[in-house]
From TrEMBL:
This is Phosphate transporter. Keywords: Membrane, Phosphate transport, Transmembrane, Transmembrane helix, Transport. Belongs to the inorganic phosphate transporter (PiT) (TC 2.A.20) family. PANTHER family: PHOSPHATE TRANSPORTER. It comes from Chryseobacterium taichungense.
Length: 380
């Protein structure tokens, strides 16, 4: 089977995005373990990368499904998915990811990808409606045609809100859940170890941090690698249904096509998890400084609490198939351990800056993807 060139480009770009996601989000997995000097940065990225990739075997052979990938593939109505839409969304996501990485801003790679996908699909729907309106009412001026086309887009269910609304809600819910769990875990640990020798307790927590960081890296792999898998899945499903008119795919209800794809294209999740692991090995040193020290100073005890809380949050959201930001999750968890000391232990100026980056990620990615789609269709 020969794939179209654009489909091959999409697969390559998606894996490049996955790799960038790995080094962009490396700090999420290793910031606390590096700042507490449990591992050197080089040891830490190797450790995190190992567990990022190990998540593939958990998802494929223990959980037995890829719920988050399925959610991503279905954020857009399949009637408005094309290879050009997916390509434009990926270009926008890569551009925003590299920009935020360069400036050391721990934004969400996940929401960048989702925003790009949604923005390109909405622009695709708008352009189709614009041409339809212009053909049906040639006497309308440019702005009136745009207005009518926009009105039609709002009535077409381009975005699947049953999938997208939970994603938006968890921009705020994931860090809050991580924060609450980390506060509870920290208070429990402090109570259990209050009569322990501080030096011995610190040595114990440094050993425990190896386990907690592994758990968080496992959650990171489960969560983030599946998003790229979902995008590649959407492209391959479009290829089989719309381009090949494959009777096998056409005979499967739309809701079941992703599971069939995952079963028959097992190399897609495999290389998705591998790419994010390789990206993590490349590290993201600028962001590590923000995550590990600028938000609040973190001890090994607090590192265990933050990473365990982050891992629990990611496992919960993976169970329900809700894509969340690992950046948001670990940030909320680190804030939680800071709050157990005192409110002023958290550097709220840094935190507010991060919040703005999070809120703006989806709309900016959507706008860039929309413009990219216009350029792609104009050039083609």
């Amino acid at each position: 089977m020969e794939f179209p060139i654009l489909l091959i480009v999409i697969i390559v770009l998606a894996l490049i995005f996955d790799y960038i996601n790995g080094f962009h989000d490396a700090a999420n997995s290793i910031a606390t373990i590096v700042s507490t000097k449990v591992l050197t940065p080089f040891q830490a990225v190797l450790w995190a990368a190992l567990w990022n990739f190990a998540a593939f075997f958990i998802a494929a052979y223990i959980i037995g499904e890829f719920k988050i990938g399925n959610t991503i593939a279905k954020t857009v109505n399949e009637n408005f998915i094309t290879l050009e839409v997916i390509f434009s969304g990926l270009v926008a996501a890569i551009a925003w990811n590299l920009l935020t990485w360069w400036f050391g801003i721990p934004s969400s790679s996940s929401h960048t990808l989702i925003g790009g996908f949604l923005g390109a699909a909405l622009m695709h729907a708008f352009m189709m409606d614009y041409h339809d309106v212009a053909a049906a009412q040639p006497g309308l001026g440019f702005w009136d045609t745009c207005k009518e086309a926009f009105s039609q887009v709002t009535q077409q269910s381009v975005v699947k809100f049953d999938k997208v609304i939970p994603i938006f809600l968890f921009i705020f819910m994931a860090p809050i859940i991580g924060m609450v769990i980390s506060i509870i875990i920290t208070l429990i640990i402090v109570h259990l170890y209050k009569r322990s020798n501080p030096h011995k307790a610190d040595k114990s927590f440094k050993r425990l941090q190896l386990g907690s960081s592994a758990l968080f890296s496992l959650g990171h792999g489960l969560n983030d690698a599946q998003k790229v898998m979902g995008i590649i899945g959407a492209a391959l499903i479009y290829y089989h249904v719309e381009m090949l008119k494959d009777p096998v795919y056409l005979g499967i209800p739309a809701a079941g096509r992703f599971d069939y794809f995952a079963e028959h294209y097992l190399w897609v999740p495999l290389v998705s998890f591998l790419a994010i692991g390789l990206g993590t090995m490349s590290g993201g040193w600028k962001i590590i400084k923000t995550m590990g020290t600028k938000i609040t100073k973190v001890t090994s005890l607090e590192g265990v609490s933050a990473e365990t809380a982050g891992a629990i949050t990611l496992f919960i959201t993976d169970h329900f198939g809700i894509p969340v930001s690992t950046t948001h999750t670990i940030t909320g968890s680190i804030i939680g351990v800071g709050l157990t000391k005192r409110v002023s232990a958290v550097r709220w100026g840094i935190t507010v800056s991060l919040l703005w980056a999070w809120v703006l990620t989806i709309p900016i990615s959507a706008i860039v993807a929309g413009i990219t789609y216009l350029l792609v269709t104009f050039l083609s």
